[in-house]
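Try this one yourself first.
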């Protein structure tokens, strides 16, 4: 085990947060450390290499980066993140994204 990681292969779901810089946020179970070699698959058809640029030391959060030029011609879009309170979200639709 390198850096205390119990396995050698991990899979999960992430979300693109910046298409210009090629940034994807995922959980630390998907990308447990910055020494990981990563492959990102878009739309079940386009797989590109990526690397882990940040793992938060306390929260379950990792940031991956891919070369945006490698997905040119595809319709990759970033999610629109914004701050809001739980009160503002009451009664709104909630999307759950997961892997199968």
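Now uncover the answer:
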């Amino acid at each position: 085990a390198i850096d205390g990681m119990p396995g050698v292969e991990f899979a999960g779901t992430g979300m693109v947060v910046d298409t210009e810089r090629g940034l994807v946020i995922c959980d630390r179970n998907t990308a447990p450390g910055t020494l990981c070699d990563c492959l990102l698959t878009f739309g079940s058809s386009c797989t590109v290499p990526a690397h882990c640029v940040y793992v938060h030391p306390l929260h379950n959060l990792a940031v991956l980066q891919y070369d945006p030029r490698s997905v040119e011609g595809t319709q990759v879009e970033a999610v629109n993140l914004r701050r809001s309170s739980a009160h503002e979200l009451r009664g709104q639709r909630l999307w759950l994204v997961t892997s199968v």
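Discussion: DSSP finds one helix and five strands in the chain. Helices lie at 86-89.
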